[in-house]
From TrEMBL:
<dbReference type="InterPro" id="IPR002569">
    <property type="entry name" value="Met_Sox_Rdtase_MsrA_dom"/>
</dbReference>
<feature type="domain" description="Peptide methionine sulphoxide reductase MsrA">
    <location>
        <begin position="6"/>
        <end position="154"/>
    </location>
</feature>
<comment type="function">
    <text>Has an important function as a repair enzyme for proteins that have been inactivated by oxidation. Catalyzes the reversible oxidation-reduction of methionine sulfoxide in proteins to methionine.</text>
</comment>
<dbReference type="Pfam" id="PF01625">
    <property type="entry name" value="PMSR"/>
</dbReference>
<keyword id="KW-0560">Oxidoreductase</keyword>
<feature type="active site">
    <location>
        <position position="13"/>
    </location>
</feature>
<dbReference type="InterPro" id="IPR036509">
    <property type="entry name" value="Met_Sox_Rdtase_MsrA_sf"/>
</dbReference>
<protein>
    <recommendedName>
        <fullName>Peptide methionine sulfoxide reductase MsrA</fullName>
        <ecNumber>1.8.4.11</ecNumber>
    </recommendedName>
</protein>
<comment type="similarity">
    <text>Belongs to the MsrA Met sulfoxide reductase family.</text>
</comment>
<dbReference type="GO" id="GO:0033744">
    <property type="term" value="F:L-methionine:thioredoxin-disulfide S-oxidoreductase activity"/>
</dbReference>
<dbReference type="GO" id="GO:0008113">
    <property type="term" value="F:peptide-methionine (S)-S-oxide reductase activity"/>
</dbReference>
Length: 167
């Protein structure tokens, strides 16, 4: 039996991120929620300082933390502060919530590769934040784009797998 791992990231509205990550090889499950803010039990209408993020449960025998981050940097714009598409505010910041020093180091390595690639017109502004409690979002947000296939998303794959930052 595999020992699954979890990764926590934020990069704009959580609906689109979840929808793209759920389809990645090695991803076992996803959940959207709030992380990195000021209050306990945040809600969509009360989550000061929290980012809209996702919890990714993955099989490390089929994908790695760095491979997840590589995709993360290809499916949202990591060069805009507190913004993705039309969504603006700290809830929509690009962030990696690292759980230990190893994850932090791997995130720094991937950010360096992304910056050095020159594929984005500016430098990465993604924050590296220590893991804090992940608060699952309300049920109507979970699997939102599965329930609402024509729903809003600002996420799409900007660089295909053949253009990955990891070589």
């Amino acid at each position: 039996m595999n020992e699954y791992k979890k990764a926590y990231i934020a990069g704009g509205c959580f609906w689109g991120m979840e929808d793209l990550f759920r389809k990645r090889p090695g991803v076992v499950d996803t959940e959207v929620g709030y992380q990195g803010g000021e209050n306990e039990n945040p809600t969509y209408h009360n989550h000061p300082g929290h980012a809209e993020g996702i919890e990714i449960i993955y099989d490390p025998e089929k994908t790695s933390f760095k491979e997840l981050l590589d995709f993360f940097f290809r499916m949202h714009d990591p060069t805009t502060v507190n913004r993705q598409g039309n969504d603006r505010g700290s809830s929509y910041r690009s962030a990696i919530f690292y759980q230990n020093d190893t994850e932090k180091q791997k995130a720094e390595e991937v950010i360096k590769l992304v910056d050095e690639s020159g594929k984005w017109p500016s430098k990465v502004v993604t924050t590296l934040e220590p893991w804090t409690t992940f608060w699952p979002a309300e049920e109507y947000h979970q699997d939102y784009l599965v329930k609402n296939p024509n729903g809003y998303t600002c996420h799409f794959v900007r660089f295909e797998d053949g253009e990955a930052f990891l070589k």
